[in-house]
Amino acid sequence: QVQLVESGGGLVQAGGSLRLSCAASGSTGTINFMGWYRQAPGKQRELVATIRRGGSTNYQDSVKGRFTIARDNAENTVYLEMNSLRPEDTAVYFCRADTFLRDYWGQGTQVTVSS
Known about the structure:
This protein is mostly beta strands. Helices cover about 0% and strands about 60% of the residues. The chain has no helices and 11 strands. Strands 2, 4, 5, 6, 9, 10 and 11 form a 7-stranded mixed β-sheet that branches. A 4-stranded antiparallel β-sheet has the order 1-3-8-7, with no helix packed on it. The relative contact order is 0.32.
C-alpha cells in the first residue's frame, strides 16, 4: 500500500506561481513513476506531468516551459513548480503513484488562478 498526501494548492493571480508537494509513504519502494494530474469542473482528468524513478519527465504540451516536476527519492516526495499560471490552469490537482501492481491517488488539492 502507498499513501499520498498533497499540499501547496491555493489561490493565485494570473502570472503567479505555486509549488505543489506530494509526500508518499508506505511501500514506496514499489513506486515506478509519480505524476500530477488535474481535473477542471466539467472536464476529464488529464495528465500534467510525470517523472520516473530515474528522473525522466513528461509534460502536457500546455504546461511545457511553465511547470517543472521534480522528485526527491530519498524523501519519497514529488514536487510541481508552477510558474506563469493562467486561469485555464484552475483545477483540482491530484498526485498519482504507479507501481507494478496498481496505481494510487492522493485526495487532490485545489489550484485557482484568477484573471
